[in-house]
Automatic annotation (TrEMBL):
GO terms for molecular function: monooxygenase activity. The lineage of its organism: Bacteria, Pseudomonadati, Pseudomonadota, Alphaproteobacteria, Hyphomicrobiales. It comes from the Bacteria. This is Antibiotic biosynthesis monooxygenase. Keywords: Monooxygenase, Oxidoreductase.
């Protein structure tokens, strides 16, 4: 079953460009990763979305994803819970594609 993860980042003022470049240049050699996107959702706020072949693939990649986070952790503000990110993940319960008439 396809799995997705989403991570919200709040970037320190003036560090947007550095954050984006470090995120963009981080290794993405994760088994099972179909695609990943980084979206700017507001002033200093970004989120990433990853699409995975399975939840297990995503779980197995967590140590590498944390290593990537360590590359740009210094650019991030703390979230409300005290950590540098706000992450959620899970298996898809519904998916649709472009032109899918069943939706």
């Amino acid at each position: 079953m396809t799995a997705f993860n989403s991570v919200r980042f709040r970037v320190k003022p003036g560090l947007d460009d550095e954050f984006v470049e470090l995120f963009r240049s981080a290794p993405r050699n994760f088994a099972g990763l179909r695609k990943m996107a980084l979206i700017k959702s507001g002033d200093g706020t970004f989120f990433s979305i990853g699409e995975w072949d399975s939840f297990q693939h995503m779980t197995d990649a967590r140590p590498k994803m944390i290593a990537n986070l360590d590359r740009f952790r210094h650019t991030l503000q703390q979230q409300l819970d005290g950590g540098p990110t706000d992450a959620v993940s899970g298996e898809a319960v519904f998916e649709t594609g472009v032109g899918d008439k069943s939706a």
